[in-house]
Amino acid sequence: MSPTDAALNDAIAAINIAGYAKTRNHLEGKVTRLSPYLTHGFISMPDLFAQLPKLTLNDKLAFEFGWREFFQHVWHRSGDAIFKDMRPALPDVHYSTALPEDIREGRTGLPVIDRAVYTLYETGYLHNHARMWLASYAVHLRKVHWRVAADWMYGHLLDGDLASNHLSWQWVAATFSSKPYLFNAENVAKHAGQVWHCPRSVIDTSYEALEMIARSQTEVGIAPSLMGIDEPALIATPSVSSAENAVLTGAQRVRLVHPWMLADDDFDGLRLGVIHLPFHQRFPWSQQRWDFVMQRMQAVTDHVFVGDVKELRTILAGAAEISSVATLNPGYRELLTVLCTDLHNLPRQFPDPETACRSFSAFWSRCTAKTDDAPRRSWHR
Hints:
The protein is α/β, with parallel strands linked by helices. The protein has helices at residues 5-13, 17-23, 35-39, 45-50, 60-78, 101-104, 111-123, 128-141, 146-156, 162-173, 185-191, 207-214, 245-248, 277-282, 287-300, 312-315, 332-339, 360-368, and strands at 234-235, 253-257, 270-276, 285-286, 303-307, 321-325, 342-344.
């Protein structure tokens, strides 16, 4: 994927609303692959919907976009609690805090898992079904705690969003849902090509048998392959130099551009990209993701600051206006609140309910309760 407006516009132009509804569950289905652009703020959800005037609330695609905003709603209401079990885990099951090397290296011997890992490393992207299969295998069959695995996947995804990623892992693990998500060889055969299939394997069994494994201390046996793939390093610092303080001092109007607001605009002032290293030391990224973000950031800013953003309080002390778009990412969230004289919320497509919704169905009902089947242009704000 290319971090450019041209690539984004091509992806939007290629959207097939009806085709998505019919084929979205298959790994080769007509999915949009817009998530990296949405995660990194190339385009807001309302602006995306404005470019899709035929999209209605009855369409599966709108429903899936709703899930993205639901996860942001939970993050907004729960804060850093999303990094812990949102509800009690399966009783009497003990999970490891280390992700096994055979999973990291894509050599479990299960084609569905090994191909998912290979695809993740090669492209920085996975179809949602592949993500759920990988998560279910790691948590329920190999007894890996969802958090350590979620952190690992987050770092390798171009679209890694802490709310969407970590709450999805919790949904699979049954710490954000009422039951564990399970899959078997039949499910893989239905939704993926031949090379992903796993006949006569540990997952070639019934859902009842898999449920018993998930709720027990039993870890499935493996027959690991000898050959795998080297895991790309997760890196806490981008390979770019930071702007000199002298360049920044004296600016009167400053727009702080962080990794989750990379839309281009015609701001009349200093557009300063900011990389807050303490966040990335906690949540490192692959080189592939750094390249995606930094190529875009350098294209839409005048300079990039790399370091502890606390330093900008002194450097930009003389600025009359410092603006940005708020983010929930820890570290960035707090510092932008302190630094900015003008901090906007990211535009939402759907209302953010004032009280917390613990399920998507509750969220969707509240968001759509007062919406009739009138033309959907009334959605746009």
